[in-house]
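To make the argument concrete, we let one protein speak, a sequence paired with a row of structure tokens, as a model reads it:
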Amino acid sequence: MSGWLITGGCGFIGSNFVRLAAARRLGPLLVLDALTYAGNLANIVDLLDGGQVSFVRGNVRDSALLAQLFARHDLSHVVHFAAESHVDRSILGPKPFLETNVDGTFALLEAARTAWNGAAGRRLFLQVSTDEVFGSLAPDEPPFDERSPYRPNSPYAASKAAADHLARAWRHTFGLPVAVANCSNNYGPWQFPEKLIPLMILNAIDGKELPVYGDGQQVRDWLHVEDHCEALLAILAGGRAGATYAIGGGDECPNLAIVSAICAEVDRQLGRPAGTADRLIRHVADRPGHDRRYAIDAAQIARELGWRPRHRLLPALPGLIRWYRDHRAWAEAIRSGEYRDYYQRQYGGRLA
């Protein structure tokens, strides 16, 4: 039975995808992850004893390792999550983003091209990307879709745009069966605690300051990670090689409104007086080049593949907060050490 190579499968979106694919028994799943700060083997370790999911620790830039994996396994699908993904970190140090997101994608495309040359049967290389490659939207602009021009504004977004262009070029020039998926902001379980929603949940629970960039009116289109993974499975099952698919939750919300909703729900769950967590909100200096708004028009994937999101952000928050409360040991293991150093560097001198 043909297997799937899932790069970055110990990260937030990747691990949720592995869990969903394993639950549906979609074939042998080979997870490749370098286990950097955002890759956590604990996210999938409970799946490794069943024989369906196997794990290899390694860097996606390692061409020799990739060649070995393709030679040893009958890999019909590649799902490429592996990426440096946090905008703030890309501002502090862009180089790892170019190395992983650009060089790593190049190495993986070449490994697939070599292995699949002349191979029979359906194969697909799915490049998992972001709406940030399209830049920022004005309040009255229509959402991004598959025809939106690339206008990346951060080192992270530029590195993902470059990776998307490589994927498209390998399709056009070499005939590699590639599809690209550009998603909006994800939320859900197993998300690294430096991202907005888990950061605010955990800090609100602990009574720590809640740092909000600028006026907090930056708008994002929020997509539950389970809905995103369902969309990716739909592409892998019936998507067109050479196509781009925009995946969004159709759920725009300003950052400050999300933080306020988290505060209210945390207070409710912990039995604290209303407004307790709200007093922890601190507006900090905005990050350089902060995009104001993202939104996705997902009509194409709905029309072609029948996918639509099932979750809405604000109704999902109570369950998500309970999940992070129930997984405090997991979160605390991540928040110690290097994470604390990063948090202090990023926010320590920015309180307004």
